Amino acid sequence: MNASRVPRAVVFDLGKVLLDFDYRILARRMATQSSVSADEILTVINQTPLLHRYETGLMSDREFYDAVVSATGFRGAEEEFLNWFGDIFTEITPMVKLQEALVRRGVPTYVFSNTNAQAIRHVRKSFAFYGQFTAEVLSYEIRSMKPDSRIYEAVEGVSGLSGSDLLYLDDRSENIAAGESRGWQAWIHVDPKETVSRVSALMRL
Ligand SMILES: [Mg+2]
Question: Distance, CA 75 to ligand 1 centroid (Å)?
Answer without folding.
Answer: 31
